[in-house]
Amino acid sequence: MLYEYHKDHFTITTNPDAFDVDAIHSYLTRSYWKRGVSKELVKRSIKHSFCFGLFAGDQQIGFARVITDHTDFAYLCDVFVLEPYQGQGLGQWLLATLLACPALEGIRHFMLATRDAHEFYRKFGFQEVKNPERWMFRLADKPWFQPSGGQEARR
User: Fold this and answer.
1) How far apart are the C-alpha atoms of 135 and 117, rounded to whole Å?
2) Which residue range(s) make up the domain with 64?
3) Does 83 map to a domain?
4) pLDDT of residue 140
5) What is the distance between the alpha carbons of residues 52 and 62, in angstroms, rounded to a whole number?
6) Per-residue pLDDT tens for 22-71?
7) Does residue 142 fall inside a structural domain?
């Protein structure tokens, strides 16, 4: 599923061949939610997700990743716009484009987690979980495993 959208000299694409993994990794490894993640794990997460890259010309300036079955559930994560490009409405365009993408239409549960961007996501219909007692999650105590001897460490 390849989609491409244009606005002024900016482009949003779902083409993984266009993504600059070094730029994505550079941002994510300094973010509060992915601090210290390896480049190999970033590559794998992109490979197994539906991703949107935001570009100014050939430079990747933003990113968003959706983990989904394309039917019932989607989890939005790793959303960012590089600092020099913030405040120009590009994050809003990225999210509006992502949510309007035909490949994500009709998903029943669309979730995300954020520490500090609640107001931003509310503009797009996200809200706090109702009946949180129904939802459960499992959090690994060591999220970024290091491969050992060619096999993944298992917990």
Assistant:
1) 21
2) 4-130
3) yes
4) 78
5) 8
6) 999 999 999 999 998 999 999 999 999 999 999 999 999 999 999 999 99
7) no
For every residue of the chain, DSSP letters joined together read ---EEEETTEEEE--GGG--HHHHHHHHTTSTTTTT--HHHHHHHHHTSEEEEEEETTEEEEEEEEEE-SSSEEEEEEEEE-GGGTTSSHHHHHHHHHHH-GGGTT-SEEEE--SS-HHHHHTTT--PPSSGGG------SS-S---BTTB----
CATH of the domain at 69: 3.40.630.30
- 151 band by pLDDT with thresholds 50, 70 and 90: very low
Check pLDDT > 70 for residue 150: no
Q: Judge whether 150 lies within some domain.
A: no
Locate 54 and state its tokens: 């935001």
Number of domains within the chain = 1
Q: Which residues of 12-22 are buried (b: 16+ CB within 10 A; e: fewer)?
A: bbbeeeebeee
Domain-embedded: residue 136: no
The position carrying tokens 């539906």 is 50
* 19 within 8 A of 62, measured Cβ to Cβ: no
